[in-house]
Design a protein that fits this description.
alpha/beta
């Protein structure tokens, strides 16, 4: 296998796959501000290039010829092209595998052939399944999937699998064992494994950024694959109350897309990692889903959230980030507060 060249810290030419998307577009803008030269590869005409100095290439990351052309002269890749969301049903499985895993495999093989040795991969917290829990008797335990009977009875928090006592949710670190519980989650974990193989075989440098719940301007609207913040915002834009599943107490780490973009810049500005290194990207301040719905409703002047008690089997109860490693090793710090981030989102929606 050809050994690849790993560029150092100075300004680079960076290929951003999926650079027309919500997160990819924010990464493009942040890299340009930092002084990097950016090329976008996206299936749709790269809209992010229209208002920036980025070069645009229209193509599918699963198309080896398109990828090879986009990699010409590139020093590093920020890989964001993916099908996102938890999906609707099992018919989504082939699409997740094709877009996320086949696309990533095509990209990595092309990078090896082209001698491009630096990758930042958009990962996801969904690989963890449930987050980290502790039992007052048994210490740190793995929470099993929640039983349908419990959820129908309104018992949403997972009990200790050993004694049945209530568990306390804690921040989850990168060394937590993966436990993907959806087709999307499996595809995101497979991306990481593929990146690890590429890094070992080529001597390349792979940084995996496991994004927690990203929100902010530019979020997609009215799609079953959108995140919960986008779903709530869409409902409010229609004058409807956000529908909150379970009891609204699900804990998440909502992180601004601007902070996520800054994490990509930090990963590329830092010295290359050896092999593959994984980092959580989260605000470090857990909020409940009801907190988010209420904040958006207040900011948009819409109806108060409606807690429905509905649930989806396979959803996790709590997963929140420990981003200490990213702060310590790459000097990244989240700068957008929850209040300011919600205000930005509301301002965009009101336009």
């Amino acid at each position: 296998m050809r050994r690849v060249a790993v560029p150092t810290v100075n300004a680079m030419r960076v290929l951003v796959t999926g650079g027309s998307g919500f997160i990819g577009g924010a990464v493009v803008r942040a890299l340009l501000v930092r002084g990097h030269d950016v090329r976008i590869l996206d299936r749709v005409a790269p809209a992010a290039a229209a208002a920036t100095d980025a070069e645009a290439v229209t193509g599918d990351v699963r198309d080896a010829a398109a990828v090879e052309g986009a990699l010409a002269g590139v020093d590093a890749v920020a890989h964001h092209a993916a099908m996102v969301g938890l999906g609707v049903d099992l018919d989504d499985l082939p699409r997740f595998a094709a877009h996320n895993d086949v696309g990533t495999a095509v990209l990595l093989a092309a990078m090896a052939r082209a001698g491009v040795g630096r990758l930042v991969l958009a990962g996801s917290m969904v690989v963890y399944g449930e987050g980290r829990y502790s039992c007052p008797v048994h210490g740190i335990v793995a929470a099993p999937p929640r039983a349908e009977a419990d959820m129908r009875a309104g018992r949403f928090d997972p009990p200790c699998p050993h004694c049945g006592l209530p568990l306390a949710a804690e921040l989850v670190a990168e060394d937590a064992p993966p436990d993907p519980r959806s087709g999307y989650a499996v595809s995101k974990l497979a991306q990481e494994h593929l990146a690890g193989v590429w890094a070992r075989e080529t001597g390349g440098s792979a940084t995996v950024l496991r994004y927690h719940n990203v929100y902010g301007p530019g979020m997609p609207l009215d799609t079953p694959y959108a995140g919960v913040a986008a779903i709530f915002r869409s409902a409010l834009a229609r004058g409807q109350a956000p529908r909150v599943f379970e009891d609204g107490g699900q804990r998440r780490d909502f992180v601004s897309v601007r902070d996520v973009a800054a994490a990509n810049v930090a990963a590329l500005d830092a010295a290359p990692v050896e092999g593959m290194r994984v980092y959580n990207v989260g605000s470090g301040r857990p909020r409940t889903v009801l907190d988010l719905a209420a904040a958006l409703a207040a900011a948009l002047g819409g109806p108060a959230p409606r807690v429905t008690g509905e649930f989806r089997l396979g959803d996790v109860r709590h997963v929140t980030a420990d981003s200490t490693r990213l702060r310590a090793e790459l000097g990244w710090t989240p700068r957008v507060s929850f209040v300011d981030g919600i205000r930005e989102l509301a301002t965009e929606t009101a336009r």
